[in-house]
């Protein structure tokens, strides 16, 4: 369904990590480079069509040619730019180190938990530095229903590919600051904490997706064993590169096989926002509305310019949902009929834009 401007909404965003800088089997349409209040995304976003004609957005997390280090990825601009296109679900890919013997290089993993070992260098909230205070719920950092939806489908693709790639689920990923790899002591400590994987990219990306009420899941691809194995060499960039390309090829295969179904699942069915076609569940019950009670009550110290910054421009719809009021109440739409700050649109007694 086109929005009032005649544009087809882009419901699915794919974020590619190390080695995954483009998608195959998609028809290129155009590049877009939205300007957000937090700057431009890592690289121009590729809008491409699936065989059915529906459009998806692809963003290279580290920029064209992998020119951006994990600590300085413009994550706020990346998520805000995808939100401005209408994206409701993000499928992110990332190369990871394995902290478990059974998760061998080449394995795919759908993690469900995160341990944050970043060091405060990366802006981790859209509200950071502003006079509007928000506390997003993040107990389950990945979208549970989206991960469940992905599990069977990703496993099926890997089995049909016939290369013996294994899929692991319900794992914990440690996000470290980098750009250096772990010391052996750190790697052993992460295992003792319950970590199964380690990378440098899942945060603040997952936190920002939650603040933007976008469903988010990570497909992690193991490239190495980090540094915890006592009789093995510690991870090096050269070792990572050995499996990076094979993992990227398999990631493209997985994405090509599941994006069509994912778009069908997250698209409107008869005009009902977020309803599911065929699965009987709503992937967005978890995320849409999750910021409802996250904003602190209105204060005289909330600056109008900060609220305006978060709301974005009407033409951009950055971090905003648009709405219309009917007898059934307020229903979020992918239109720019009106603009309200995500999280503040629920309670008239909190704030008015």
TrEMBL record:
CDD domains: MTAP_SsMTAPII_like_MTIP (cd09010). Substrate binds at residues 200, 224-226. GO terms for biological process: L-methionine salvage from methylthioadenosine; purine ribonucleoside salvage. GO terms for molecular function: S-methyl-5-thioadenosine phosphorylase activity. The record marks 182, 237 as: Important for substrate specificity. GO terms for cellular component: cytosol; nucleus. Its main location: cytoplasm. Pfam families: PNP_UDP_1 (PF01048). The keyword Lipoprotein does not apply. NCBIfam families: MTAP. Catalyzes the reversible phosphorylation of S-methyl-5'-thioadenosine (MTA) to adenine and 5-methylthioribose-1-phosphate. Involved in the breakdown of MTA, a major by-product of polyamine biosynthesis. Responsible for the first step in the methionine salvage pathway after MTA has been generated from S-adenosylmethionine. Has broad substrate specificity with 6-aminopurine nucleosides as preferred substrates. Homotrimer. This is S-methyl-5'-thioadenosine phosphorylase. It comes from Hypsizygus marmoreus.
């Amino acid at each position: 369904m086109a929005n009032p401007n005649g544009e087809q909404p882009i419901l699915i965003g794919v974020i590619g990590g190390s080695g995954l800088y483009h998608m195959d089997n998609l028809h290129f349409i155009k590049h877009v480079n939205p300007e957000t209040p937090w700057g431009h995304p890592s690289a121009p976003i590729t809008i491409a069509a699936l065989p059915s004609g529906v459009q998806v957005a692809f963003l290279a997390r580290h920029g064209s040619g992998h020119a951006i280090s994990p600590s300085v990825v413009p994550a706020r601009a990346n998520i805000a730019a995808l939100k401005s296109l209408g994206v409701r679900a993000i499928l992110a890919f990332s190369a990871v180190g394995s902290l478990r013997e059974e998760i061998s290089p080449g394995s795919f993993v759908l993690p469900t938990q995160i341990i944050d070992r970043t060091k405060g260098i990366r802006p981790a909230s859209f509200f950071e530095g502003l006079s509007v205070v928000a506390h997003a719920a993040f107990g389950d950092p990945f979208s549970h229903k989206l991960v469940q939806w992905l599990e069977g489908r990703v496993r099926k693709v890997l089995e049909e590919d016939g290369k013996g790639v294994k899929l692991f689920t319900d794992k914990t990923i440690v996000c470290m600051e980098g750009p250096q790899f772990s010391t052996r002591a750190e790697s052993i400590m992460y295992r003792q904490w319950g970590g199964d994987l380690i990378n440098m990219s899942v945060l603040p990306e997952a936190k920002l997706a939650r603040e933007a009420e976008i469903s988010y899941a990570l497909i992690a691809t193991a490239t190495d064993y980090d540094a915890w194995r006592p009789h093995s060499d510690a991870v090096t960039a050269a070792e990572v590169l050995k499996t990076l390309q094979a993992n990227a090829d398999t990631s493209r295969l997985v994405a090509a096989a599941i994006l069509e179904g994912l778009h069908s699942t997250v698209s409107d069915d008869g005009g009902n926002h977020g309803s599911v076609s065929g699965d009987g569940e709503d992937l967005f019950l978890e995320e849409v509305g999750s910021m409802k009670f996250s904003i602190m009550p209105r204060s005289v110290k909330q600056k109008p310019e900060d609220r305006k910054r978060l709301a974005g421009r009407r033409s951009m719809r950055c971090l905003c949902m648009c709405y219309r009021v009917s007898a059934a109440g307020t229903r979020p739409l992918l239109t720019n009929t009106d603009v309200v700050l995500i999280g503040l649109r629920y309670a008239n007694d909190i704030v008015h834009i």
